[in-house]
Amino acid sequence: MALACKVCDFENADGARFCSACGAALTVKKDGDALLGTTIAGKFRVEKLLGNGAMGRVYQATHVALDRGVAIKVMHDHLARSGEFATRFVREARAASKLDHPNSIRVLDFGRTDPSEGQLLYLVMELFVGSDLYGLLREEGPIDVARGARVVTQVLSALEDAHAIDLVHRDIKPENVLVGLRPDGSEIAKLCDFGIAKVAREEGPKLSQAGNMIGTPLYMSPEAAMGRDTDARSDLYSVAVVLYEVACGSRPFDAPSPLEVARLQVEEAPQPPSLRAPERRIPPALERVILKGLAKRPADRWATAREMREAIEAAILARPAGSQSEPGATRPCRACKAPVGVGRDSARRAARRRTRCRRPRSRPSARRRSRGSRASCPTGCSATCGARAPRPAPSGAR
């Protein structure tokens, strides 16, 4: 498809970066993007702009030979012009291409185009239908705590695989977590942009001159904010910030300037989630997982992604129904399947009210009453359902 020059309106050949008539850079096409409709590296036909970030633009494209949809990320020109950046980019892209995990966006190809195409630096990934977690939170507001925890455990599952080959993400944030649906309708999360932030951060001052900050301080670990070496535990800190956000509906640290946010990450202790958002009824065990993940010293955090994932699952995902640790838990009625409260709160209320099953029967013996009463089905059915309420504590020694 021909590209029209904005200066002289000359129709240039597909893939041209500069106008053949006047020499102007072809940065804008008639529909707004110079790459739309072009073919990158002779293989990928660019069809739609999906997003634009600090490091580059992401497009929906088609692999011409395979007739297969892909996503292609084209690095910004000021990054691609750096020879050091290009070398590191290829190194990290090659490492990321080794990942083959259901919760990681797979890297399919990468490279640099010929000078005739502008020497574009690009990364080709699997095309994933869904939205990022950032957009999901903006669109739906605070999501269910258990749902958010399920998303985070999938992110940690992807990190287990990456950390096993010494690949650290270094830029975990809601924008890099994609959420969609499996064929069976269940929700799946995928982590993208492995290793790319590391390459950008190593460029240091060259990036700041262009006015871009790689790796937002809102999710940055204290050691990363101080410019120190980072490892897998830095990723786990960022995951804890994301978990805090989905649990509370807000981030642990926020401020008008990036430098102030970085200072808070280094110096200030986070407010416990139960105090930040008491209406969310965040389980105490999950709060402990979050606060341990947000420890300032890496040695005080979770040691591995697997350890943190299992702790989250134990806290909120794998609790047995009706667990005494879950306020307001329920158990299905044996007859009509209606939910009957059996958690701590409902059990205590039942003990206070001396609630008995409504099924007609003889009056319980004094010994039976002393052991506590049974919760009644809220639908009024005649079945005995629910768990036995705990025995009231003695009022004093007799």
In spatial order, strands of the major sheet run 3-4-5-6-8-7
User: Helix content range of the residues, please?
Assistant: 25-40%
The radius of gyration over CA amounts to 28 Å
CATH superfamily of the largest domain: Transferase(Phosphotransferase) domain 1
Query: How much beta, percentage-wise?
Result: 15-25%
Please provide the count of β strands.
13
Shape, per Cα inertia axes: elongated
Total number of distinct structural domains: 4
User: How many helices?
Assistant: 14
CATH architecture identity of the largest domain: Orthogonal Bundle
- Largest sheet, strands/sense/barrel: 6 strands, antiparallel
Ends apart, CA distance between termini: 94 Å
CATH fold descriptor of the largest domain: Transferase(Phosphotransferase), domain 1
- Going by helix content, strand content and strand pairing, the class is alpha+beta
Top-tier CATH class of the largest domain: Mainly Alpha
Mean pLDDT: 78
What quaternary form is this?
Answer: single chain
Q: Give the ordered list of helices and strands.
A: EEEEEEHHEEEHHEEHHHHHHHHEEHH
The poorly predicted ranges are 203-214, 320-332, 337-361, 364-375, 382-391
